[in-house]
Amino acid sequence: MPELPEVETIKNTLKQLVIHKTIEDVTIQWPKIIKRPGDTAAFRMDLLGQSILNIHRRGKFLLFELDDYTLVSHLRMEGKYSVHQKEEKVKKHTHVIFTFTDQTELRYNDVRKFGTMHLFPKGMELTESPLNKLGPDPFDEAFTLDYFYQKLQHTNRLIKAVLLDQSVVAGLGNIYVDETLFKAGILPTRRADTLSKKETAAIRSQAIATITNAVAKGGSTIRSYVNSQGNMGMFQLELYVYGQENKPCKDCGCEIVKMKVAGRGTHVCLHCQK
DNA sequence: CACTATGTTGGTTG
DNA sequence: TCAACCAACATAGT
């Protein structure tokens, strides 16, 4: 479901709801969500008695900082966290439940069961999969023009595929790649190694601006996304191309068209993007 | 009813 | 090494 702006919003709202709470029990309804440790009983035992000190984000990953462990959680397409009283009825598609000592619960709900959780002894999470291959966040100082330009020159992939590659830059997904390329005036079908330094600079700065603006708006609510307090994002009102097929381009009035690029539904203005 | 698409990403295949 | 494809899964739309 979520890309960087939505995960950032989830992190911020969820933090208010669960910080300083202590885990009393863990219930796992769909074991395949738990990727590490391989034994879900060990996952549960490790977590018992741990308190949530803080929540962080890297790319599209949520990182729950505990006393002795870090829980790395990826929501994939439809994962959601919400906090409930223990006696509240558990919704369909709730797969993992963290019960706290104050008798509230953090519940992980995921219609498609694609989401993942990895538990690491604190400090080990950054050097192992899945976080070890992650590129810089868009607004990280490591995401320099030189770094980005080098990455683009050393591939023969399409620019859309490169922007979706989390090892190049972390946090962009299908929505924000389409929006970034529109704002930069670049077609998603351009081969990355044909882009000039000036075009690369435009993509980089538009990626940063788009993500920053979307974070400020609380992310985009396209279908089911709401933050952990049940509120919708507002950035969907500022989308120029994503989901705008057959509508006029907000800049030139030409019809936005939808095509398939790098295996993903892709939205472009053929007049504004070259 | 059947077929397609979906805010993701890892593994497999060529 | 890399890019295309598929699988994991459920639901809504055409």
Determine the strand fraction and express it as a percent band: 15-25%
CATH topology of the largest domain: Helicase, Ruva Protein, domain 3
Total number of β-strand segments? 11
Rg: 20 Å
Broad structural category: alpha+beta
Main pleated sheet:
5 strands, mixed
* Unreliable stretches: none
Distance between the termini: 29 Å
Overall tally of structural domains? 2
- SSE ordering: HEEHEEEEEEEHHHHEE
Mean pLDDT: 93
- Order the strands across the largest sheet as they lie in space: 2-9-5-4-3
In the CATH hierarchy, the architecture of the largest domain is Orthogonal Bundle
Could you please describe the fold and organization of this structure?
- The protein has 274 residues and is α+β, with helices and mostly antiparallel strands.
- The chain folds into two domains: 118 residues, N-terminal domain of MutM-like DNA repair proteins; 124 residues, Helicase, Ruva Protein, domain 3 (Orthogonal Bundle).
- Helix content is 25%, strand content 23%.
- The protein has a five-stranded mixed beta sheet with strand order 2-9-5-4-3, with helices on one face. A four-stranded antiparallel beta sheet has the order 1-7-8-6, with helices on one face.
- A hairpin with a 3-residue loop joins strand 7 and strand 8.
- Helix 1 runs parallel beside helix 6.
- The model has no long low-confidence stretch (mean pLDDT 93).
- The structure holds a DNA duplex (14 and 14 nucleotides).
Helix and strand layout, with pairings?
Blueprint: H1 4-18, E1 23-28, E2 34-36, H2 40-47, E3 52-58, E4 61-66, E5 69-74, E6 80-85, E7 94-100, E8 104-109, E9 116-121, H3 145-153, H4 159-164, H5 174-184, H6 197-216, E10 257-261, E11 264-268
Helix pairs in contact: 1-6, 3-6, 5-6
The chain binds a DNA duplex (14 and 14 nucleotides) through helix 5.
